[in-house]
């Protein structure tokens, strides 16, 4: 049996165990995937992770509020993937095999990846929404937006606009990411405030945390899109209702959750997953 955990605080609501259990059944392998509560401090996080991998654990997912803490842990140990570096956050932990083979202790071989943004792109692709050459707008400039930018650019989008309540956070994010990645510095990116965002887009993505607050975004009446995506899921999302009423196709972020999980599972086990098959099973629950 291969052991996996998802570390978070709170963690009781996490759907990762049921998602990964379905993946394991599809791949025909025997796994145990558990929710792991952790006190909200960096030392506790490092202790939980070390105990897990010393006990023979294969891989761990990291969720709120530990993605940046996990990034710092891996940076000073076994390293980070390019996506984790650009996102400034880690959602997938594993051990760096090359380091282990060269005699590095387990605790020093911790390696971090980030599959959130690619999970989003894979879900958008599976919906049949064309990304190649698309005019894309992201609303939000926090962690969720940051993780989506490199995978979206790598998918071949045409133009990218980043809108945020605090526009300086959007411009700072673009400068920072352009310095970190040549694919990002070569992409023409414009920024504006959320209510200034207007005109016709192909895909608009809500990457703010507003879905949780009950507030609504101040969307411009001259803003239109063919497709609207909200990274949140599990409740009625005013952002999606707004664009649905204006004729757009919409999706919440549940498929992104499944998409990032599939990429983590593949990274850990080498088995690739037919996400569509398991999405049907999860939706039927
Ligand atoms: P996450 O990791 O979910 O992205 P975050 O890093 O705290 O969380 O970022 C939250 C994002 O939601 C930010 O873009 C924030 O806008 P500001 O940068 O202006 O703070 C946005 N956000 C949160 N609440 C909002 C609200 N009530 N109206 C508009 N934007 C909001």
Describe the structure.
The active site is at 67 (proton acceptor). Involved in the biosynthesis of the chorismate, which leads to the biosynthesis of aromatic amino acids. Catalyzes the reversible NADPH linked reduction of 3-dehydroshikimate (DHSA) to yield shikimate (SA). This protein is an alpha/beta fold and 285 residues long. The protein has two domains: 2-114 and 257-283, 3-Layer(aba) Sandwich (Rossmann fold), CATH 3.40.50.10860; 118-251, 3-Layer(aba) Sandwich (Rossmann fold), CATH 3.40.50. It has helices at residues 16-27, 42-54, 67-75, 82-87, 97-101, 116-126, 143-154, 167-180, 182-185, 238-244, 254-269, 275-283, and strands at 2-8, 31-37, 59-62, 92-95, 110-113, 135-139, 159-163, 189-192, 199-206, 223-230, 249-251. The strands form two sheets. The protein has a six-stranded parallel β-sheet, with helices on both faces. The protein has a five-stranded mixed β-sheet with strand order 2-1-3-4-5, with helices on both faces. Helix 1 links the parallel strand 1 and strand 2.
Task: Annotate the secondary structure layout.
Blueprint lengths: L1 E7 L7 H12 L3 E7 L4 H13 L4 E4 L4 H9 L6 H6 L4 E4 L1 H5 L8 E4 L2 H11 L8 E5 L3 H12 L4 E5 L3 H14 L1 H4 L3 E4 L6 E8 L16 E8 L7 H7 L4 E3 L2 H16 L5 H9 L2
Parallel strand pairs: 1-2, 1-3, 6-7, 6-9, 7-8, 9-10, 10-11
Antiparallel strand pairs: 3-4, 4-5
Helix pairs in contact: 1-11, 1-12, 6-7, 6-11
Bound molecules: 2'-monophosphoadenosine-5'-diphosphate.
Family: Belongs to the shikimate dehydrogenase family.
Catalytic activity: shikimate + NADP(+) = 3-dehydroshikimate + NADPH + H(+)
InterPro entries: Aminoacid_DH-like_N_sf (IPR046346), NAD(P)-bd_dom_sf (IPR036291), SDH_C (IPR041121), Shikimate_DH (IPR011342), Shikimate_DH-bd_N (IPR013708), Shikimate_DH_fam (IPR022893), Shikm_DH/Glu-tRNA_Rdtase (IPR006151)
